Amino acid sequence: MTVTIVGSQLGDEGKGGVVDLFGDAADVVARYQGGDNAGHTVVEGGTEYKLSLVPSGAVRDKVGVLGNGCVVNPATLFEEIDDLRDRGLAPDVRVAERAHVILPYHRVLDGIEEEAKSDSDMKVGTTGRGIGPTYEDKVGRRGLRIADLLDPEGLREKLEYVVAQKRALAEDVFGVDVDGPDADEEIGSAFDVDAIHEEYSEYGRRLREEDMTVNAGAFLADRIERGEEVMFEGAQGTSIDIDHGNYPYVTSSNPTAGYAATGTGVGPTTVGRGEVVGIVKAYLSRVGSGPLPTELKGDDESEELAEYIREEGGEYGTVTGRPRRVGWLDIPMLRHAARANGFTGLAINHIDVLAGLDEVKVGHSYDLDGEEVFTLPATTEQWADCEPNLRRFDGWSDVDWAAVAEEGYDAVPENARAYLEYVSDELDTDIYAVGVGPGREETVVLEDPFE
Length: 451
Ligand code: IMP
Ligand code: MG
Fold this sequence. Notes:
Bound molecules: inosinic acid, magnesium ion
CATH architecture of the largest domain: Alpha-Beta Complex
Distance between the termini: 10 Å
Shape: globular
CATH class of the largest domain: Alpha Beta
């Protein structure tokens, strides 16, 4: 069977830990979208692994697959693989031949466009990894796929067409000096066909040598047919989904569960026969621009509280190190996520981070133009006009969370249980796990989706 893990908020819900925990029963862990914009932290025996591209299951000897829906930066891929090998692991990672490749000009153009928008509120606050420009080229039918790296001659031909276009875009549209005497060397080489060809055909050679490329759909279907367990690991979150998130402050792919099929090549019925687990952080964080109705800001008390939660929860971007904005849990956002993904279960993380507060609030609904609304409006402009109707919960104290994890759900402080059960009721979805700390042992498991 399959289990799909999806972020229900804005990314950074602690998916890595859940994939790690439930992925124990999986034979294969596949990513279906995104690239090295993701940041997955896995803690194993006190050692922390930070991965951005390689599926987190690789830390535990699972076969990792990067599906056709992913965008792959081969430099990051091999860096992460080499790093895991240096640390004594033997990661087995397969990459879809259909996955698109992030090229140096994509990263440069990501930065150029953000810079061009920097004086307006159009700036997205991307991770700068070239994700958006790579998906643009995929849709524009001028992208390069992993399979292209295995064919040096074809690669050159495609590069000659596309690099000339990208260079003109940088120079003529954005007015960037690509290779004048004062030009930045890194920018220059990002638009140099020979330099790119040399570097990327070498990646192709290594992909072939290590036999890493697969037809992802066929590979996964075969595994499933043989009775193996497959986990689909979503990156980012529903509210930064290109279709279902708060456009334009979104990533350029679909983290939502439907893409687990499209982004790997198995049928939606295969995904739908399995479980879809929504990962929820007990509060909100956001790295990057865009509205956030329940954000803690605007007065000293709120900002102190945000600062406290940021420190307690380590709310700094895994990929970029940026401090994350912090807010109360937003229930309309979760209702939207539950519908768009069809969650069959929830994992609610980080309830330990909120321990010690006198009271904990949630945005239960919004007030929009004098009307009470219970889910996300379709446009970001409307969302920005939403005023949250807050509900208060009595806080819970800090306890020995490792002992709680050991003992089980009944050991969770009563007030925290009231909070969790409220969320479960509002979403009409059972809780499968409660995260009470960063390690995978620090999770209270109520139900294992693979069982
Ligand atoms: P991009 O994915 O780099 O294009 O960034 C687009 C938006 O998605 C920005 O607001 C990023 O901060 C956000 N984003 C991308 N990846 C992640 C992630 O893994 N966690 C949280 N936010 C992310
Ligand atoms: Mg992350």
